């Protein structure tokens, strides 16, 4: 993996192994329809208390459009992490940059948890 320049504001940044694990979890969440995409959707689910984990990408330009989300995550006690690339999750991502997993109560999320995924 090439060492690319990453904005210093993208903190905490996942290393290569953790990024691989996160991307696997994001792919599983996409398959189970447990994934929301985009900064607006992430902000909505954080404010509603539905978000469980936020994945932000460090190569978003400009990065400042995402920097309100770590503050909201810390306020709501939701874990978040930056990964290096926008190539996260499903291929039909119309607003790359943020993906987050929601627990329940939204239109695209099942009400029953999937065994081994959300407890």
TrEMBL record:
Residues 93-119 are annotated as: Disordered. Residues 22-89 form the Ribosomal protein eL8/eL30/eS12/Gadd45 domain. Keywords: mRNA processing, mRNA splicing, Nucleus, Ribonucleoprotein, RNA-binding, Spliceosome. The keyword RNA-binding applies. GO terms for molecular function: RNA binding. InterPro entries: eL8/uL1-like, H/ACA_rnp_Nhp2-like, Ribosomal_eL30-like_sf, Ribosomal_eL8/eL30/eS12/Gad45, Ribosomal_eL8/Nhp2. Common component of the spliceosome and rRNA processing machinery. Required for ribosome biogenesis. Part of a complex which catalyzes pseudouridylation of rRNA. This involves the isomerization of uridine such that the ribose is subsequently attached to C5, instead of the normal N1. Pseudouridine ('psi') residues may serve to stabilize the conformation of rRNAs. It comes from the Eukaryota. One of its GO terms (cellular component) is box H/ACA snoRNP complex. Belongs to the eukaryotic ribosomal protein eL8 family. It comes from Elysia marginata. SUPFAM superfamilies: L30e-like (SSF55315). GO terms for biological process: mRNA splicing, via spliceosome; snRNA pseudouridine synthesis. This is H/ACA ribonucleoprotein complex subunit 2. It is found in: Nucleus, Nucleolus. The keyword Lipid biosynthesis does not apply. Its main location: nucleus.
């Amino acid at each position: 993996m090439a060492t690319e320049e990453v904005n210093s504001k993208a903190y905490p940044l996942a290393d290569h192994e953790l990024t691989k694990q996160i991307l696997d979890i994001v792919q599983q969440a996409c398959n189970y329809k447990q994934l929301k995409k985009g900064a607006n959707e992430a902000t909505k689910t954080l404010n509603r208390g539905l978000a469980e984990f936020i994945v932000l990408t460090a190569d978003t330009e400009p990065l400042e459009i995402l920097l309100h989300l770590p503050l909201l995550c810390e306020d709501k006690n939701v874990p978040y992490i930056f990964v290096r690339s926008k190539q996260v999750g499903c291929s039909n991502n119309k607003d790359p940059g943020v993906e987050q997993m929601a627990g329940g109560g939204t239109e695209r999320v099942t009400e029953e948890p999937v065994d081994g995924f959300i407890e």
